[in-house]
Amino acid sequence: MILDERTEFVDGVAIPGSAGTAAFGDVVDLRSLGGSGLGGLRDIGNGREIFWYVAVGDAAAGGTSVNVQLVSSDSDTLSAPTIHAQTGVIPLAQLTAGKLAHMQSVPVEGPAYKRYLGLQAVVVGIFTDGDLTSGLTLDPHGWRAYPEGAN
Question: How many Å apart are CA 40 and CA 114, to the nearest integer?
Answer without folding.
Answer: 8
